[in-house]
Amino acid sequence: MARQLDEQIVGRFPVGRRLRVLDVGMGLGTQALRLARAGHQVTGLEQDATMVAAARESLAGEPEGIRERMRIIEGDGRDTGVHFLPGSFDVVLCHGVLMYVEEPDPLLAGLARMLAHGGLLSLLVRNGDALAIRPGLSGDWSGALAAFDTTACLPHSRTDSNGGTPTRLGLDVRADRLKDLTSTLAGIGAPLHAWYGVRVFTDTAADGAEVPADMETLLAVEEKAGRTDPYRGVAALLHLCGVRG
């Protein structure tokens, strides 16, 4: 997903430009820190106090220049209008958050308002069109059958969507369908520009599985599948990129 995001940033903004980035629901701050290290001015917004503390601890270990480029705010992503002025950011990330929000449209509309003209909105969501894949491949036939007609998922562990450690919350989560989000993004003035699949082949890996020796090849396969039909359509997650018009 980081490679996909970098592709969109490089294709939209001049090389070397320091972007104003907002990471809503930043989790442990993996993506926010990565972008701060790349030279961008990053604001992370997270409502879970445990994750905020972990992100601040990670930031404290960074060089001064990176610490100065990143700030962390404890707060709800639905309250962006309280913290920031409209058009304050070039890039807004919302990764692994919509699955916890029962009514995501107001949140998305608020995120779009945070974007400057031509700004990039990056969403990572559960793929509501592929919920039967994992139980089906695991031999859970009743679970697979039930998954065809719902966008509700099993209780979920909150994971930093950018590669961090899972935090067990036992929360019920929901998924989104590509066609529905495409319509929503058009309606809030940030129409879909590109989309990718994430975790096409690796979603069935057991929690805590060892990193394989051929990790680079694995990533290359996932990256290729995530941009290739029909594979990307059955990914566990979808990465959608909208552009503020």
Task: State mean pLDDT (0 to 100 scale).
Answer: 92
Characterize the biggest β-sheet: 7 strands, mixed
CATH homologous superfamily descriptor: Vaccinia Virus protein VP39
Q: What structural class results from the helix and strand content?
A: alpha/beta
Percent strand equals: 15-25%
| Helix-strand topology string | HEHEHHEHEHEHHEEHEHE
Terminal-residue CA separation: 24 Å
Low-confidence stretches: 156-161, 163-168
CATH class: Alpha Beta
Give an overview of the whole structure.
Keywords: Methyltransferase, Transferase. Residues 22-122 form the Methyltransferase type domain. One of its GO terms (molecular function) is S-adenosylmethionine-dependent methyltransferase activity. One of its GO terms (biological process) is methylation. With 245 residues, the chain is α/β, with parallel strands linked by helices. The chain has a single domain (1-244), classed as 3-Layer(aba) Sandwich (Rossmann fold), CATH 3.40.50.150. The chain contains ten helices and nine strands. The strands form two sheets. Strands 3-2-1-4-5-9-8 form a seven-stranded mixed β-sheet, with helices on both faces. The chain has a two-stranded antiparallel sheet with strand order 6-7. It is globular and about 50 Å long.
